[in-house]
Amino acid sequence: GNCDFCRWTESTAEDTFGRIETEGVVTASNLFKYCGPEHGLLLFKRHHPLQFTADEVAQLLSCAAQWFSSAAALHSQGGAATLSSAASGLVSDVVPAGSSGLFPMLLWNCMPRAGASQFHGHAQVALCQVPFPSDLQLSIAQHSYAASHNGASCFDDSRAAHDALGLAVSHGDAEDRTWAYASLTPRKDAEVVIHGPALTSASFAAVLDAALRTVIDDLSCPCFNVAVQPMW
């Protein structure tokens, strides 16, 4: 057909460090970069944006982890792949925290009503030299909460509060556990919050896929937004 993302080998550009490719997902450089120094795309090789499998979600997250590592290495000093301390959450198993000032974000907008510029399933990955506003807001809230609650984590306490009300579920074991809950204080309506240990976590990928399939299949909603950001 006429889809540039289906013809990614001819119609999309590579990042400076090349492509990262799995059986079902491949990376490309983003033509419309709105932050820097790096802003890329994760493309499903399957055209329809709602027909992804659980394994392809895991591949998307794995590609993102590898992209963050490669992009950070490109801009680090002395060849050591580093991100800012903001990376100490979901990408900590990929790149050690450092001081290079690179802040990661993964965004997945599905369908035009959710802000997607292309029908073909894709997500965006970005490293920015300044924190994204939403990241900074969460960081300020976390540090303020910890200072007034004997070092406690507002993320952990929020999850525990939702769990006490029967709104949270978990998946995995002690070595790899992910929590999800329907937020009582959402930024937008119908928000589901997922706390996972790493982008490469099997439980995180499984819970994210389950949440999306619930939205698509059970709630008959073809549009969604996903943001994956570190908890600093």
Characterize the structure shown.
It is a single chain. Strands 1-2-4-3-8 form a five-stranded antiparallel β-sheet, covered by helices on one side. A three-stranded antiparallel β-sheet has the order 5-6-7, with helices on both faces. The longest helix is centred in the N-terminal third of the chain and has 22 residues, at 54-75. It is globular. Mean pLDDT is 88; it is low at 78-99. The protein has helices at 8-11, 54-75, 133-148, 154-164, 202-218, and strands at 25-29, 37-44, 103-110, 122-128, 168-173, 176-182, 192-195, 224-228. It has five helices and eight strands. The protein is of the alpha+beta class and 232 residues long.
In whole angstroms, the N-to-C terminal distance is 43 Å
Beta-strand share of residues: 15-25%
* Order of adjacent strands in the largest pleated sheet: 1-2-4-3-8
Helix-strand sequence: HEEHEEHHEEEHE
The overall average pLDDT, rounded, is 88
Number of helical segments with 4 or more residues: 5
Secondary-structure content class: alpha+beta
Which residue ranges are poorly predicted, with pLDDT under 50 across at least 5 consecutive positions? 78-99
Radius of gyration: 18 Å
Helicity level = 25-40%
How many strands? 8
**Major sheet characteristics:** 5 strands, antiparallel
Shape: globular
